[in-house]
Amino acid sequence: MDDKSIVCRCSDLSVKDIRDLIAQGYTTFDEIKRISRVGMGPCQGRTCTQLVLRELSIATGRPLAELMPGTYRPPVKAIKLKAICECAQGGEAHD
Amino acid sequence: MIRTADVVIIGGGISGCAIAYNLCKKGVKRVAVIEKGYISSGATGRCGAGIRQQWGTEMNCKISKLSCEFFESAQEELQYEGDIEFKQGGYLIVSSTMKEHEQFKKNVELQNRLGIQSKLLNLEEAKEIVPYLNTDGLISAAFHQKDGHLNPFHATQAFANAAKRLGAEIYTFTEVTGILVENGKIKGVQTSKGDISTNIVVNAAGGYSQLIGNMVGLDLPVYSERHQILVTEPVEPMLDPMVMSFSLNLYCQQVPHGSIIMGRGDEGEPRDLRITSGWHFLEEMAKTITKLLPPLENVRLLRQWAGLYNMSPDRQPIYGSVDEVEGFYLAIGYSGHGFMFGPATGLLMAETILGEETTLPIDMLHINRFKKGELIFEPSVV
Question: Do the chains contact at A88 and B286, CB–CB below 8 Å?
Answer without folding.
Answer: yes
